[in-house]
Specification:
three-stranded parallel sheet; TIM Barrel; 3 helices
């Protein structure tokens, strides 16, 4: 089993970078993407190219999922993370406020736009299918 984290569109490149990314994995082992996604402050809305907005976080997922689905060895994936959580190493005032904001749900229990993006992908059964 091989696992790795992937944050195209968040820590590197733009979300669209995922569209052109091809994975060349030289092992026949099953692969799990243990972390992927982006961050957003719940309730912060704006353009889909504005970092920290719910729209940007959802856009990252819309580009990452099709890319990950093209990996033949892929057997599982886990968006990072289900719920925002306290993290003192996240000091960006007004946005992070000492929380990791990569959750699909805010620390107050509010579902973010990305939650519904992933929910739709699961309902459409578009996760885990190669193009």
């Amino acid at each position: 089993m091989i696992g790795f984290n992937e944050y195209i569109g968040w820590y590197e490149g733009r979300p669209e970078t995922a569209d052109e990314t091809k994975w060349d994995i030289q092992y026949d082992n099953p692969l799990i993407v243990s972390e992927f996604g982006a961050g957003a402050k719940a309730g912060l809305h704006g353009g889909e190219n504005e970092r920290w907005t719910e729209e940007y976080e959802a856009k990252v997922f819309r580009h990452q999922l099709p890319m990950l689905n093209k990996i033949p060895q892929l057997r599982g994936m886990s968006p990072w993370v289900l719920m925002d959580f306290r993290s003192p190493n996240r000091p960006l005032a007004g946005i992070q406020d000492e929380f990791n904001r990569k959750g699909l749900i805010s620390e107050q229990g509010k579902k973010k736009t990305a939650f519904y993006t992933l929910q739709k992908a699961y309902e459409d059964k578009s996760i885990g299918k190669a193009d």
